[in-house]
Amino acid sequence: MAGACSGHGEIVRITFKLFAMLADHLPAQLDGHTREGNALKLDIAEGTTVQQVIDRFSLPAKLVHLVLIDGRYLDKEARATRALAEGEVLAIWPPIAGG
Q1: Domain-located, residue 50
Q2: What is the distance of C-alpha 11 from the center of its chain?
Q3: What is the pLDDT of residues 50-72, one digit of tens each?
Q4: Which of 12, 18, 41, 75 qualifies as a cystine partner to 86, CB 3.0-4.6 A?
Q5: Which residues, 6 or more positions from 74, have their beta carbon under 8 angstroms from its beta carbon?
Q6: Backbone CA torsion sign across 65, 68, 72, 75
Q7: SS3 state of residue 37
Q8: Whether the predicted model's global pTM rises above the 0.90 cut
């Protein structure tokens, strides 16, 4: 998990948030950024996709249920092609059962 995701171009900074049991996948510190609750600032290569971030943190596919970028839902099919931009917030929720 060390270093930015592979790619070309500039480095962009995003906020990566994991909720419920997924938060266990966030390290306490990475690339000089300290985890704040369930959020971590990430420096990634320009053009890095949502799926590349998911893969970088080895998130189990069955637990990656609700994916939001700046509060907007992202379809599962778009994860492999949607590149993240400077300042965006990527939030991922597992399936949640309730009653």
Answers
A1: yes
A2: 15
A3: 999 999 999 999 999 999 999 99
A4: 12
A5: 50, 67, 68, 82
A6: negative
A7: coil
A8: no
